[in-house]
Structures are given as structure tokens and as C-alpha cells.
């Protein structure tokens, strides 16, 4: 009859050893997944055009903290404030232009290939409703 107590001890030891938590399972060391975002920080110089405006030179100056984008757009007639959210492969942006006598708001999407970003957008200002696109090179 010594077999049953010995078996019980072996089962108990196996269960205890197999379920021991490691130090990395501690609630003090949470496992946070790493996420990457499209990198658009920098000065981007290029050309855009819309259904109402021909080819126009512009410079985006963008700062980035994780997914949050802020910056400016400068064109020959004025400036605007840019805000955006970067995803893995693209960035959604909003622009508020502060051109005297012709303020406007625009929204678009930007993607990056190498040192080039391409954007498509729409919005409105004193000229009407715009649909446009542009390409910009990292400076």
C-alpha cells in the first residue's frame, strides 16, 4: 500500500514544478508590443496641384512623436498648420491654411516610398472645393 502515497507525492511535485512562474511573468514587467509608424519627420519640398490651382511649390515641415504629427505647410501665398496621425503605411493629415483673405481647410492621406511622399487631398478655401495631389522629396 506504499504505492498510493508515493504516487500522490510524485503528482504533487510534478504539478508544483510545472506551474512555477518565472520572474518575467511578474506583473511589474508588462509585455508591451512594439508598433512602428510611418516616418514622415523632416522637411519635404515638392509640388502639388488641384482641380482649381495649377502646379504650386510647397514645403511641409513635419515633427513626429510616435503616431502624432505636427508641422507647417508653406506655399508662396502663405502658411498653414498641419496635424496628423501616422499608421504603419500611411498618414492621415489635416491642414488649416491661414492665407490672408483666403483661409481654408484640407484633409488628405500621405504615403512614403524611399525619400518621396505622395499625397492626395481635398478641401475648400475662397476659390472653392479642391481635389488634389502632390509629391514631395525629403530635404
Please describe what this structure looks like.
- This protein has one helix and eight strands; from the N terminus they run αββββββββ.
- The radius of gyration is 28 Å and the shape is elongated.
- Helices cover 12% and strands 53% of the residues.
- The protein has one helix at 3-18, and strands at residues 42-50, 56-65, 68-75, 78-86, 91-97, 104-113, 116-125, 128-138.
- It has a domain at 42-138: Porin, CATH 2.40.160.
- It has an eight-stranded antiparallel barrel with strand order 1-2-3-4-5-6-7-8.
- With 139 residues, the protein is mainly β.
The CATH class of the domain at 42-138, by name, is: Mainly Beta
Tell me the radius of gyration.
28 Å
Average pLDDT level:
85
* Largest sheet data: 8 strands, antiparallel, barrel
List the helices and strands and how they pair.
Layout: H1 3-18, E1 42-50, E2 56-65, E3 68-75, E4 78-86, E5 91-97, E6 104-113, E7 116-125, E8 128-138
Antiparallel strand pairs: 1-2, 1-8, 2-3, 3-4, 4-5, 5-6, 6-7, 7-8
Amino acid at each position: 500500500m506504499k504505492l498510493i502515497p508515493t504516487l500522490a507525492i510524485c503528482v504533487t511535485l510534478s504539478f508544483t514544478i510545472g506551474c512555477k512562474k518565472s520572474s518575467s511573468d511578474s506583473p511589474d514587467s508588462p509585455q508591451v508590443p512594439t508598433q512602428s509608424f510611418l516616418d514622415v519627420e523632416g522637411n519635404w519640398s515638392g509640388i502639388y496641384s488641384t482641380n482649381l490651382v495649377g502646379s504650386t511649390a510647397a514645403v511641409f515641415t513635419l515633427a513626429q512623436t510616435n503616431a502624432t504629427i505636427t508641422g507647417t505647410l508653406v506655399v508662396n501665398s502663405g502658411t498653414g498648420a498641419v496635424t496628423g496621425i501616422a499608421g504603419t503605411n500611411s498618414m492621415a493629415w489635416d491642414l488649416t491654411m491661414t492665407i490672408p483673405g483666403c483661409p481654408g481647410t484640407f484633409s488628405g492621406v500621405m504615403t512614403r516610398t524611399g525619400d518621396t511622399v505622395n499625397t492626395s487631398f481635398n478641401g475648400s478655401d475662397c476659390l472653392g472645393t479642391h481635389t488634389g495631389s502632390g509629391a514631395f522629396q525629403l530635404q
